[in-house]
């Protein structure tokens, strides 16, 4: 553990992060959607993709890139609309996919690798997440204790690890629901439409965000 971060600071940071996890956001909804309609593996890899996206935001906050989103309305809106359009694109593509046959398992539509690589840009292109890290992490960084970059990255790695563990626990908890969905033939036929609507809804939610 980085000696520049005091144990009291780390303890407070972990406690606050645990509290934040009690307020589910779009990332949790994305994990739940992938788990129910793609299986446990897809859900876990979605969570890992989100964690990678969060660490990208950590690095952005560490080098000051996220500050641009706070001071520039143009930059914020550009990232916001790119992220929103990406989610809407995923939703439209899901709506256009042919429904799975009655014999096809519910996990067929999304592979673990696809879930992982789709989750990364979905999280990276959310400017609200960037602003969160810019506002949240500095509260636990103390320049007098040494390199602020190392403090940022250490806190970011802790957050990413906790996030990955949290989403994995969600996946393991929600797995019985995924098995139930797999037994419901009518729901399997509609799962692409459900996923599409959820992604489009997330995209619209991102599009309506304000700084």
UniProtKB/TrEMBL annotation:
Could you tell me which InterPro entries the record lists for this protein?
Answer: LeuE-type
Q: Which GO terms describe its molecular function?
A: amino acid transmembrane transporter activity
Membrane topology summary:
Multi-pass membrane protein
Q: State its location(s).
A: Cell membrane
Provide GO CC annotations from the record: plasma membrane
Membrane-spanning residues: 12-32, 44-68, 74-95, 116-137, 149-174
Q: Name a Pfam family for this protein.
A: LysE
Q: Which UniProt keyword terms apply here?
A: Cell membrane, Membrane, Transmembrane, Transmembrane helix
Q: Which domain of life is it from?
A: Bacteria
Q: Would you tell me the protein name for this molecule?
A: Lysine exporter protein (LYSE/YGGA)
- Provide the organism lineage as a comma list: Bacteria, Pseudomonadati, Pseudomonadota, Betaproteobacteria, Burkholderiales
